[in-house]
Amino acid sequence: MAELTAQLVSVDRLLWKGQAKIVTAQTTEGEIGILPGHEPLLGQLKDNGVVTIQPVDDERIVAAVQGGFLSVQGDKVTILADYAIFAGEVDSAAAESGLHDEDELTKARSEAELAAVRRASNINR
Protein backbone atom coordinates (compact mmCIF):
# COMPACT_ATOMS: atom_id res chain seq x y z
CA MET A 1 0.00 0.00 0.00
CA ALA A 2 1.31 3.44 -0.95
CA GLU A 3 1.70 5.97 1.82
CA LEU A 4 2.33 9.66 2.36
CA THR A 5 4.73 11.20 4.82
CA ALA A 6 2.68 13.96 6.42
CA GLN A 7 3.29 16.61 9.01
CA LEU A 8 1.04 19.23 10.54
CA VAL A 9 2.94 22.17 11.98
CA SER A 10 1.78 25.44 13.49
CA VAL A 11 3.91 28.43 14.41
CA ASP A 12 4.22 27.26 18.02
CA ARG A 13 4.37 23.45 17.76
CA LEU A 14 4.54 20.28 15.72
CA LEU A 15 1.07 18.75 16.04
CA TRP A 16 1.59 15.49 14.14
CA LYS A 17 4.10 13.71 11.92
CA GLY A 18 3.91 10.25 10.41
CA GLN A 19 2.69 8.00 7.62
CA ALA A 20 -0.79 8.62 6.24
CA LYS A 21 -3.18 7.15 3.69
CA ILE A 22 -4.82 10.48 2.78
CA VAL A 23 -4.72 14.13 3.81
CA THR A 24 -7.57 16.56 3.17
CA ALA A 25 -7.54 20.31 3.69
CA GLN A 26 -9.78 23.28 3.07
CA THR A 27 -7.93 25.80 0.92
CA THR A 28 -8.88 29.16 -0.52
CA GLU A 29 -9.58 27.31 -3.79
CA GLY A 30 -11.79 24.66 -2.15
CA GLU A 31 -11.30 21.35 -0.36
CA ILE A 32 -8.49 19.15 -1.61
CA GLY A 33 -7.59 15.53 -0.97
CA ILE A 34 -4.01 14.34 -1.26
CA LEU A 35 -3.26 10.68 -2.00
CA PRO A 36 0.12 9.05 -2.68
CA GLY A 37 1.39 10.04 -6.13
CA HIS A 38 -0.28 13.48 -6.11
CA GLU A 39 1.19 16.16 -8.34
CA PRO A 40 3.36 18.83 -6.65
CA LEU A 41 1.18 21.55 -5.18
CA LEU A 42 1.30 24.67 -3.05
CA GLY A 43 -2.04 25.79 -1.64
CA GLN A 44 -3.16 28.48 0.77
CA LEU A 45 -5.16 27.20 3.74
CA LYS A 46 -8.57 28.71 4.36
CA ASP A 47 -9.01 30.77 7.51
CA ASN A 48 -11.15 28.80 9.96
CA GLY A 49 -10.51 25.69 7.88
CA VAL A 50 -10.22 22.02 8.72
CA VAL A 51 -7.42 19.57 7.98
CA THR A 52 -7.89 15.82 8.31
CA ILE A 53 -5.20 13.17 8.25
CA GLN A 54 -5.89 9.44 8.04
CA PRO A 55 -2.82 7.78 9.55
CA VAL A 56 -1.89 4.32 8.30
CA ASP A 57 -2.37 2.59 11.66
CA ASP A 58 -4.45 4.94 13.77
CA GLU A 59 -7.68 6.94 14.05
CA ARG A 60 -8.35 9.94 11.83
CA ILE A 61 -6.85 13.22 13.02
CA VAL A 62 -8.92 16.39 12.69
CA ALA A 63 -7.50 19.86 13.28
CA ALA A 64 -8.85 23.39 12.97
CA VAL A 65 -6.41 25.68 11.19
CA GLN A 66 -6.13 29.43 10.82
CA GLY A 67 -4.23 30.47 7.71
CA GLY A 68 -1.01 29.04 6.34
CA PHE A 69 -0.02 26.77 3.46
CA LEU A 70 -0.13 23.19 2.27
CA SER A 71 2.79 21.83 0.26
CA VAL A 72 2.97 18.56 -1.67
CA GLN A 73 6.32 17.32 -2.99
CA GLY A 74 6.49 13.70 -4.11
CA ASP A 75 4.85 11.64 -1.37
CA LYS A 76 5.42 14.26 1.32
CA VAL A 77 2.66 16.61 2.54
CA THR A 78 3.52 19.50 4.81
CA ILE A 79 0.83 21.65 6.37
CA LEU A 80 2.24 24.90 7.77
CA ALA A 81 -0.53 26.67 9.66
CA ASP A 82 -0.39 30.06 11.32
CA TYR A 83 -2.44 28.46 14.10
CA ALA A 84 -3.71 24.89 14.49
CA ILE A 85 -5.49 22.96 17.20
CA PHE A 86 -6.76 19.38 17.37
CA ALA A 87 -10.55 19.12 17.31
CA GLY A 88 -10.49 17.48 20.75
CA GLU A 89 -8.63 20.46 22.23
CA VAL A 90 -11.24 23.05 21.24
CA ASP A 91 -13.00 24.67 24.22
CA SER A 92 -16.61 24.91 23.02
CA ALA A 93 -17.64 27.47 25.64
CA ALA A 94 -14.75 29.78 24.75
CA ALA A 95 -15.46 29.36 21.03
CA GLU A 96 -19.12 30.30 21.51
CA SER A 97 -18.11 33.27 23.66
CA GLY A 98 -15.76 34.35 20.87
CA LEU A 99 -18.67 34.24 18.42
CA HIS A 100 -20.67 36.62 20.58
CA ASP A 101 -17.65 38.92 20.89
CA GLU A 102 -17.23 38.81 17.10
CA ASP A 103 -20.90 39.72 16.59
CA GLU A 104 -20.46 42.69 18.94
CA LEU A 105 -17.29 43.75 17.12
CA THR A 106 -19.05 43.55 13.74
CA LYS A 107 -21.96 45.61 15.10
CA ALA A 108 -19.58 48.22 16.53
CA ARG A 109 -17.71 48.47 13.20
CA SER A 110 -20.99 48.90 11.31
CA GLU A 111 -22.10 51.65 13.68
CA ALA A 112 -18.73 53.41 13.35
CA GLU A 113 -18.90 53.21 9.55
CA LEU A 114 -22.45 54.61 9.58
CA ALA A 115 -21.37 57.48 11.84
CA ALA A 116 -18.45 58.26 9.49
CA VAL A 117 -20.78 58.34 6.50
CA ARG A 118 -23.14 60.70 8.35
CA ARG A 119 -20.26 63.01 9.28
CA ALA A 120 -19.00 63.01 5.69
CA SER A 121 -22.45 63.84 4.32
CA ASN A 122 -22.83 66.74 6.79
CA ILE A 123 -19.45 68.15 5.73
CA ASN A 124 -20.47 68.11 2.06
CA ARG A 125 -23.68 70.13 2.67
- Order of neighbouring strands in the sheet with most strands: 1-2-5-6-7
Oligomer: single chain
Class of secondary structure makeup? alpha+beta
Assigned CATH class: Mainly Beta
CATH architecture heading:
Sandwich
At the fourth level of CATH, the homologous superfamily is F0F1 ATP synthase delta/epsilon subunit, N-terminal
User: Which series of helices and strands comes N to C?
Assistant: EEEEEEEH
How many domains make up the 3D coordinates? 1
Helix fraction, binned, reads: 25-40%
Number of strands: 7
Query: What is the overall number of helices?
Result: 1
**For the residues shown, what is the average pLDDT?**
85
Shape: elongated
Specify the biggest β-sheet.
Answer: 5 strands, mixed, barrel
Q: Which residues sit in consecutive blocks of at least 5 with pLDDT less than 50? A: none
Rg measurement, Å: 20 Å
Distance between the amino and carboxyl termini = 74 Å
Look up the CATH topology.
Answer: ATP Synthase, domain 1
Taken as a percent bin, the fraction of beta residues is over 45%
InterPro entries: ATP_synth_F1_dsu/esu, ATP_synth_F1_dsu/esu_N, ATPsynth_dsu/esu_N
GO molecular function: ATP binding; proton-transporting ATP synthase activity, rotational mechanism
Protein name: ATP synthase epsilon chain
Subcellular location: Cell membrane
Would you mind describing this structure in some detail?
GO terms for molecular function: ATP binding; proton-transporting ATP synthase activity, rotational mechanism. It is a peripheral membrane protein. Its main location: membrane. InterPro entries: ATP_synth_F1_dsu/esu, ATP_synth_F1_dsu/esu_N, ATPsynth_dsu/esu_N. With 125 residues, this protein is an alpha+beta fold. The chain has a single domain, classed as Sandwich (ATP Synthase, domain 1). Helix content is 26%, strand content 49%. It is built from 1 helix and 7 strands. β5 and β6 form a beta hairpin. The relative contact order is 0.18.
